[in-house]
Amino acid sequence: MELRQLEYFVTVAEERNFTRAAEKLHVAQPGVSAQIRRLEREFGQELLDRSHRSVRLTEAGAAVLPYARAALAAAEGARLAVDELTGLLRGRVAVGTVTSHNVDLPGVLAGFHEEHPAVEITLAEANTDQLLDDLRTGRLDAAIVSVGDTGDTTLAGIEIHVVEDQPIVAAVSHDHELAVHSVISLDTLRGRALISLPRGTGLRTRLEEACADAGFAPYIAFEAGDPAVLAQLAARGLGAAILPGAFAEARSDQLATIRINRPALRGRLALAWRTDGPSNPAGRVLISRARAALAQATRP
Prior knowledge:
It is a single chain. By secondary structure, the protein is α/β, with parallel strands linked by helices. The chain contains 10 helices and 12 strands. It has helices spanning 3-15, 18-25, 29-43, 59-86, 105-115, 128-137, 202-214, 227-235, 245-249, 281-298, and strands at 48-49, 56-57, 91-97, 119-125, 142-147, 158-173, 183-185, 194-196, 220-223, 240-244, 255-261, 266-274. The strands form 2 sheets. Strands 3, 4, 5, 6, 7, 8, 9, 10, 11 and 12 form a 10-stranded mixed β-sheet that branches. It has a two-stranded antiparallel sheet with strand order 1-2. The longest helix is centred in the first third of the chain and has 28 residues, at 59-86. The radius of gyration is 25 Å and the shape is elongated. The relative contact order is 0.14.
């Protein structure tokens, strides 16, 4: 019995398809099938039921699966223990990020890769809710997220390092009726057409929480996942875009920026990771390096 055979078996069991499993493993599909057949001959039992459209575990396969996973985890743990002892970092780290921010995440990852070329790095984009969920479940080692104040209850089990803290503003076309104001109360937005990022994003969460505290639900006339699209819609006079202050002010030729107070809305970008930290050494080193690099970048 070989670890490779167990890895192939576990991957097919999870993907329920030989072709997808082969793609995930970066090997040819016939090779996956052949290795699992050898494993089945060694057990003297079929582990997978191939008679259906999707591959299913047999009773024997279901019994073997947890032991196969445990064996692979033990082998990975042993390898990582030796790597830590010798100072060699390898393996993989998974990083997530929200869209449209000024954090030099590519620079952080490039610096990490230069120091630890044997570590595979993956990067994915999603909204804050999804990123926090992926951190908690271990699918991500670290992420750039949008958060509220430091007492935000959505951050249970999550540590953060705040990278950027700025006001959330309303941005309108220069001929919009609100453009004559430099500051408005949140209640001024009651019933007005607003343009916002989708639910699940940190900015949208801040807006909805503040409006709920003020006793109303915001009227979202348009939503889009790209702040640049929100700015374009607002510039066309379609409503007030809710945007990070610096982002709106950079478009002063198209938009009038209006601060919101009573209450003031603020958005924070932060590097986030699970409180108990990643299980892999590479993830822990990446977080340490990222915190140092981002602290240096934001220092006055």
